[in-house]
Amino acid sequence: MSSAGAKHTVGFVGIGMMGLPMSKRIASHGYPLYACDTSAAAMKEIGAVSGVKVSNDLAEIGRACDVVILMLPDSNVVKKVLFGEGGGLAAHLKKGAIVIDMSSSNPSVTRELGPRLEAAGVGFIDAPVSGGVKRAVDGSLAIMAGGDHALIERVKDLFLTMGKSIIETGMLGSGHAMKALNNYVSAAGLLAACEALKVGADFGIAPREPARTTAPRTS
Question: For 145, phi and psi rounded to 5 degrees?
């Protein structure tokens, strides 16, 4: 917590399909929240939620927040937000702040960014999620958290506003690696199922449940 008995002031950058319900969950649990996105429609929707301030000023978010969550398209965007024009978000974060990358990022880039933030006194956790929009809405996501255990413990209550299971995966970058491997296994299963359907079709097996026939009765 930011102080005894107080909740973190949270920045949430990336109010998209997943980010919108996730940020709403955080706000609904009483966390002061700064929301940031390039979409005016997304900013309008999250801005209507009690306790949320919308801002596209990364400097303001860095100065105001002790935890900042990133839910962005990829590692390139994450790097741009953190270290882009004018120094990015990282140039304005307070010492002791924590950045949580919940995007599906490249684990190698995550491990590259960690020491840069650490040098500025900022903690870094990679914590991608699994479960899709439905589970983001009801707060039952699975969160795969990589990084220092003590940092993860500091934001555990925040994680529990968004997910039911927090899986500590190990060193920084391991959360993003786990998400990539999870996606790989899922894609491999889908590919195998498609191949099975193709082989079945080659042998005349219809890709649907065949009509059942009843053997004629004999007297």
Answer: -105, 120
The per-residue b/e assignment along 166-197, b for 16 or more CB within 10 angstroms, e otherwise, is bebbeebbbbbbbbeeeeeeeeeeeeeeeeee
What is the rounded CA–CA span in Å between residue 69 and residue 19?
Answer: 9
134 given a catalytic annotation: no
pTM of the model: 0.86
Identity of residue 195: E
5-63 per-position pLDDT tens digit: 579 999 999 999 999 999 999 999 999 999 999 999 999 999 999 999 999 999 999 99
124, 113 contact by CB (below 8 A): yes
Residues 6+ apart with CB under 8 A from 47: 35, 53, 54
Q: Which domains does the chain have, with CATH numbers?
A: 10-177 (3.40.50.720)
Structure tokens at 99: 């950045």
Q: Label residue 209 by pLDDT band (50, 70, 90).
A: low
Give the whole-number percent of the chain exceeding pLDDT 90: 81
Q: What is the largest CA-CA distance in the chain?
A: 90
Catalytic residue among 7, 24, 79, 179: 179
Length of the chain: 219
